[in-house]
Amino acid sequence: MAALTEANRIVVKIGSALLVERSSGALRQDWLASLAEDVAGFRAKGVDVVIVSSGSIALGRSVLGLSAAELTLEQSQAAAAVGQIQLARAYEQHLAPHGVIAAQVLVTLEDSADRRRYLNSRATLAQLLRYGVVPIVNENDTVATDEIRYGDNDRLAAQIAVTVGADHLVLLSDVDGFYSANPNEDATAIRFDTITEVTP
């Protein structure tokens, strides 16, 4: 973590499992309150923070009373529409007591694939950061179809880190590191504490 203390700008990706209780579908208020304190601490030191947050579909599923079964595209988009407003409100409510303003930024893969849209989103994020705002970025699941989806918020977070020129990208999830395979599905998965080279 020593490197984070020297950062000027960081992107933090938060997985659904950290934000939303799997069994009840409720927001984990205490966890989010703790995160808000950390974000406020970085902001107080002049560090720009961008959050890439999962959780809208999980929250919306709960509000709409949808089953745990796999959702159709239309059901996922409806759940995202309902959950996104819950998620944005939660971030605002937890950051505001620290004097931190939150903004919601919804993107699709097209926003980084198309040059004009990429430059526009980059300019918007840059302006928000100049104002001292913490952008809360998520994929726009209400309109994104398989053809225009990032499909994975780790991938989205990496793109946002490049877009805003972040010093560090922090991926927060319920998996304790980088593995050769999904450790929940493959007992032989190997954990790598440090990656010094990206290979095939």
What fraction strand? 15-25%
Number of helices: 7
What is the H/E order?
EHHEHHEHHEHEEE
Shape: globular
Topology, number of strands: 7
Helix residue percentage = 40-55%
Average pLDDT over all residues: 89
Low-confidence stretches: none
Euclidean distance between termini CA atoms: 28 Å
Largest sheet: 5 strands, parallel
The structure class reads: alpha/beta
Output the radius of gyration.
17 Å
Strand order of the largest sheet: 3-4-2-1-5
Characterize the structure shown.
The structure is a single chain. With 200 residues, this protein is an alpha/beta fold. Helices cover 42% and strands 16% of the residues. The protein is built from 7 helices and 7 strands. Strands 3-4-2-1-5 form a 5-stranded parallel beta sheet, sandwiched between helices. Strands 6-7 form a two-stranded antiparallel ribbon. Helix 2 crosses helix 4 and helix 3 crosses helix 4. It is globular.
